[in-house]
Specification:
Length: about 400
């Protein structure tokens, strides 16, 4: 079994390497206690441990041992007066019940367990995965995709499209969300669902996110003369990007390089990304807001600590998740929830954006509830920057309303 600590980097950054070492010692002791007398455990390197489990006759017995490892982490570890709640991901590879491991094949067993461990992490962490041969194929495909994606960054194959954001009251274009696409030389235009996960795992998300940020800032500067003061360009920021030590400097450089007003930029960050490393995320968000950049909580309502998020982070806007918007017309309970989110935003002085508005009824509901703006297929699908430019130009060409004075007959 390969046992890897989840999000250990955040612990090292918070406590320092000395504190991180104390955590590793505490984890090692817990793993020793979780072992049976016939098992052995060792630290393999970094925050990864290996447990050799002998004398098992069914996969259920192996899973029971793995569950003991997970259970060993349920109580907090106290380091320098701080309680740390840790989880681990466990990958299992089975040589064959009762069979002797050929030393020449031991490295293959380790490789398979390591593969299963990454599958466990992908499943949400704090869980166990038992190796199956098809996992190897998935890993090979993921590695090939990561290599192709690295070339895509180098060969400038990435493109940005923008989904307009509309004012709920008067229908004006008040923003645009930048969305990345991959212009694959063989597959054509590839959507983010097919490659962003690989980018996140490989670390390429930081490079891709930096390119998206710079390109969106350049485009925002081009739109400056066409848009009203409340126009914002939304850029998604992943947990990996937010946790990068150079995140704030990267945003500052993109703004300065293209002469973009900081108030034109709004970074959309999910609750999960904010809570991945709360202390580090709070510091980064405070520095970003100090630059004049807006912070929106993306997919609001889908996380586990919504109110904690609003209390802890200096956010300026909420984006209601499309799931709630879609259900609001047919489910009174969901409609009340949406109304509550809008009221909460208003009470806190935050803007409120509804995502995924696809029908007139959905638009009517979020407008009647007092939502500030919305985006979705009802008005516009994501398109090239030129499409948003046309919308902005058209809105400026509309003549201002004519003032008509109606005199009472008695005045004539």
């Amino acid at each position: 079994m390969v046992i890897d600590l989840d999000r250990f980097r955040a612990i090292n950054e918070t406590l320092g390497h000395q504190g991180g070492d104390l955590v590793l010692i505490a984890v090692a002791r817990r793993l020793q206690r979780a072992c049976r007398t016939s098992d052995s455990v060792s630290r393999f390197g970094g925050d990864e441990f290996v447990m050799v489990v002998e004398d098992v006759d069914t996969v259920d017995n192996v899973r029971r041992v793995a569950q003991r490892v997970l259970d060993a982490m349920t109580t907090p570890i106290v380091i320098e007066g701080s309680e740390l709640y840790l989880t681990v991901s466990v990958g299992v590879a089975i040589n064959g019940y009762g069979a002797t491991v050929d030393p020449k094949l031991a490295h293959e067993l380790m490789r398979d367990a390591d593969t299963a461990m990454y599958v466990a992490k992908a499943a949400g962490r704090n869980t166990t995965a038992v190796f199956e041969p098809q996992m190897r194929d998935r890993v090979a495909l993921r590695l090939a995709l990561s290599a192709a994606l690295r070339q895509a960054v180098t060969h400038h194959e990435l493109r940005l499209v923008y989904q307009p954001v509309f004012d709920c009251r008067d229908g004006r274009v008040v923003g645009a969300e930048a969305l990345v696409r991959w212009q694959h030389p063989e597959r054509g235009l590839v959507g983010p669902a097919d490659f962003l996960d690989a980018a996140e795992r490989s670390g390429l998300i930081v490079d891709i996110g930096g390119w998206v940020l710079a390109e969106a800032c350049r485009q925002a500067a081009e739109w400056e003369h066409l848009c009203d003061d409340d126009f914002r360009v939304h850029v998604n920021l992943s947990a990996r990007q937010l946790g990068d030590p150079g995140a704030v400097a990267q945003v500052r450089h993109a703004l300065e390089r293209h002469g973009t007003s900081p108030g034109r930029l709004r970074l959309d960050i999910t609750e999960a990304a904010l809570l991945d490393d709360p202390e580090g995320a709070a510091r980064a968000c405070e520095e970003l807001v100090a630059l004049g950049v807006g912070i929106a909580v993306d997919d609001f309502g889908t996380g586990h600590s919504a109110l904690t998020t609003l209390q802890r982070f200096p956010v300026t806007a909420l984006k209601i998740d499309r799931y709630f918007v879609a259900r609001a017309p047919s489910d009174p309970r969901t409609a009340r929830l949406v109304r509550g989110v809008v009221a909460l935003a208003e009470a806190l002085g935050l803007e409120c954006v509804a995502e995924g508005v696809e029908t007139k009824e959905q638009r009517r509901i979020v407008r009647d509830f007092g939502c500030d703006s919305y985006q979705g297929f009802l008005r516009a699908r994501p398109g090239p920057a030129a499409y948003v430019t046309t919308l902005l130009e058209d809105s400026r060409r509309v003549s201002p309303p004519t003032l008509v004075i109606v005199r009472d007959a008695a005045d004539s």
